[in-house]
Amino acid sequence: MSNPERSETPSGRGAETEKPVPDESARTKAKEMMKAYEDRPTAVLPGSDNTVAGTAVSEWLDEEGQPIYGRNDDAGNSS
Predict the structure, then answer these.
(1) What is the secondary structure of 12-25 as a DSSP string?
(2) Mean pLDDT over all residues of the chain?
(3) Buried b (16+ CB within 10 A) or exposed e, 40-79
(4) pLDDT at 78
(5) Is 8 helix (H, G, I), strand (E, B) or coil?
(6) Percent of the chain at pLDDT above 70?
(7) Tens digit of pLDDT for each residue in 69-79?
(8) Could you tell me if 24 and 38 are in contact, meaning their C-beta atoms sit under 8 angstroms apart?
(9) What are phi and psi of 37, to 5 degrees?
């Protein structure tokens, strides 16, 4: 049940369409983005009863087990 008026190629593009070639900066950015998919050790935050919401990547916690992101006391300090 094909429609003879409809083109067989999507969006009317033919086979002559070339694929874009990524430059070095795009490759570097993609490599950085892939780090999000690496397995990293996690820690359970106190009082969270081992729920997913209470689990953090160990790199996101300080020595005392407190989250390091979202703190306002680090803003503007250069020491």
Answers:
(1) G--TTPPPPPP-HH
(2) 75
(3) eeeeebeeeeeeeeeebeeeebeeeeeeeeeeeeeeeeee
(4) 46
(5) coil
(6) 70
(7) 776 664 445 44
(8) no
(9) -95, 0
Give the pLDDT score at 27. 94
* Half-sphere exposure in the Cβ direction for 35 (13 Å, CA): 6
What tokens does 6 get? 């409809």
SS (H, E, C) 34-64: HHHHCCCCEEECCCCCCCHHHEEEHHHECCC
Find tokens 């790199």 and name the residue: 59
pLDDT of residue 7: 52
Pull the structure tokens for residue 17.
């369409």
